[in-house]
Design a protein that fits this description.
A hairpin with a 2-residue loop joins β2 and β3 (23-28). The protein is built from 4 helices and 5 strands; from the N terminus they run ββββαααβα. By secondary structure, the protein is of the alpha+beta class. It has a single domain (9-97), classed as Outer Surface Protein A, domain 3 (Alpha-Beta Complex).
């Protein structure tokens, strides 16, 4: 299933981001996975997820162009598949299941 840019996303609460000259390192304390954000612009997108209503808005606020969107969608899809970023609506359903 493709990453839905039109949905709200955020960084998982168990993920720490460390900025680096190439972009950033993202470490998930729950899964012990390490991911590399390979550009500063991707770091800006990830940081903007919490403040923006959708991932598309986060991309736009970070200066991602229409031509760059497919690349950033794939990067966010990879981060989502590894649990680094999570869809906000999924969190509501998960919390309801765990009561």
């Amino acid at each position: 299933m493709p990453f839905e840019l039109e949905h709200p996303w955020r960084l998982d609460r168990q993920v720490a981001i460390r900025p680096e000259p190439f972009g950033a390192l993202a470490y998930h304390f729950g899964t012990r996975r390490l991911s590399f954000l390979k550009s500063r612009k991707l770091l800006d997108v990830v940081r903007a997820l919490d403040a923006q209503p959708t991932a598309l808005d986060a991309c736009r606020s970070a200066g991602v162009t229409e031509q760059e969107l497919p690349v950033y969608r794939r990067a966010l899809e990879t981060l989502a598949s590894s649990g680094m970023v999570v869809e906000c609506s999924s969190l509501v359903a998960e919390q309801a299941d765990h009561g």
